[in-house]
Every structure is written in C-alpha cells, then in structure tokens.
Amino acid sequence: MGANGCKITDGNPKDSTLYEGVLERVRNDYGIRPQDIVTDGAYASLRNQEKAKEYGIVNIVFKIVGSLKSVVTSVQMETRLKKWRSGMEAVVSNLKRGFYLFRCEWKGRGHFDAKVLWIVIAYNIRVITCLMVEKLTLQPQG
User: Fold this and answer.
1) 100: left (phi over 0), alpha (psi -120 to 50) or beta
2) How confident is the model at residue 81 (pLDDT cuts 50, 70, 90)?
3) What is the 3-state secondary structure (H, E, C) of 4-21?
4) What backbone phi and psi angles, to 5 degrees, belong to 40?
5) Residue 25: is it exposed, middle or buried by C-beta count within 10 angstroms (0-12/13-18/19+)?
6) Mind listing the pLDDT tens digit for each residue in 25-60?
7) How far is CA 7 from CA 13, 83, 120, in A?
C-alpha cells in the first residue's frame, strides 16, 4: 500500500500468498491492527486463518463454501462482514468495467503501473465528487 494505497504485484501470484503481506502493510502503514477481516475465497487457507489470529484479528471470514469455517463472535458479525465484502465487489467491478482496468494495452511495466494508479485516482475523484455533489444538493438553499 504505502504512499499510493495500491500494490501492483509482479506476475500473477496466488491470492493466498499475498494475505500476510496485506496484514503487515495495514499494520505498518496505518499503525492499527484491524479487529475484523473478510476476503475472497482465493485467500482462504488454514495458514492464513492462523496468521490473522496471530495479528490479533477477532473476526475472520473467507467467502467460501467448504471445510474452512469462519472465526466470528456471532452470526450477525459474519453476515455483516459478508455484506461489506459484497459492496467491495461493486467497487472492483466498477474499476474493471467503468475504467477498463480489466485490460491494459499500454506497453511495459511502467506504463501498466501508471495506468492502474491513474485509474485508482480517477475512481477516487469520482467517488469524492459524487459525495460532494450529494452533500451540496442536500443543503438548504438560503
């Protein structure tokens, strides 16, 4: 994450191998240990579940159907985390389809990195603009 909040990996590593690095970056970049975490099923593994526990995470949810069960304080917490993750899927979908992140025809790694970072910036500007417009339209005219 660091200064740009976006980690671009070399190649196409398995998601499950990236999990611990994400936990470490959150701790280093933000100085916090999250209490809850929810991820796609591709991150699911017993090792990653144990690493999350070592980091002090209380509620651990991988979106999967299988033998690896969620570690949660309540069914309501598990439902809440799964719903939050569903909302994040909309963000990823928007980045891929709305900003053409699913394909990069720019040549070279530097150009690829630039495209990804500019798309993330553009998406954030659009979100902030929408929030500001909404806030301004809700204010009484006087």
Assistant:
1) left
2) very high
3) CCCCCCCCCCCHHHCHHH
4) -65, 155
5) middle
6) 888 888 888 899 999 888 889 999 999 999 999 999
7) 12, 24, 11
Domain ranges for the chain, please list them. 1-98, 102-142
- DSSP code for 63: E
CA count, 13 A, side-chain hemisphere, 67 = 2
pLDDT class of 2 with cuts at 50, 70, 90:
very low
CA distance linking residue 20 with residue 41, whole number of Å: 15
DSSP state of 102: T
Reading the block at residue 5, the tokens are 């909040």
pLDDT of residue 63: 81
Residue 58 is which amino acid? Answer: V
The first and second tokens of residue 70, run together, are 């969620």
Task: Give the tokens for residue 4.
Answer: 């740009």
pTM: 0.71
Q: Tell me which residue has tokens 């209490």.
A: 35
